[in-house]
Request: fold
Amino acid sequence: MKMRMAFAAVLMAMSAGASAQVIDGPDYVYVSGEASTKVMPDKFPLGLSVSRTSQDVDAARRDIEEQVKAFVMQARQAGIEEDDIDVRDLDVERIEKEDDKSGKVAYIGHSVTRNLQFDFRNVQTLRKFLSVMRLTRDVEIALDEPSVESEGEVRRKLLADAVKSARANAELLATAAGRKLGPAHTVSDKPIRVRADNSGTTLDSVAVLGTRLRRESANDELPVVVEPKSVEITATAYVIFRLVD
Reply:
């Protein structure tokens, strides 16, 4: 585990009044602190979609259910737990097509689809499943990025170190300004919006949200499973400290 001391700080002389963050008294310092650790992924999500369009809805449903049953059995044989398999509701949609010349609408059939979600707990089990499954033109597969199921718990534990990092940053700034650091006024795991009284200016901190990417393979090929790398989890604390003489 390591702590990174990245911060933005502002020395503020504020008095009570209308503001986004109500602060009474003289001087304050607003800092942030970070703590991070690296954890190996323990969740490897895989999505499957089995669909077929046919005018014989019952036959299409039977074919899809047979494929779904086979996929579930192969996943269980590969070592996945039953609780990590989610078979979604069957979706049936009528498909029609309009003729460009006559404008008449023709019935094509019904699209019958069943979606499944597998959450493999290690890359070996995922690879074993992919080695025995067979893709057809009716099947689409989506492999999500590996994740850490206990990420929220890990981040909560890191918050204490993030607050310590924030205090160290505040001590540095206070000393540089010839002041002493007082008690914490406000502590948050989200940016604090503070507006200095009578100034009309606002200090805003921006939180950057991460985006998880999904990679989908073509129907005739399986996704490539690379060796998983550790995931860095970071917690950030935002603290307003009082400054004393």
Q: What stands out?
A: Confidence is low (pLDDT under 50) at residues 1-19, 198-219.
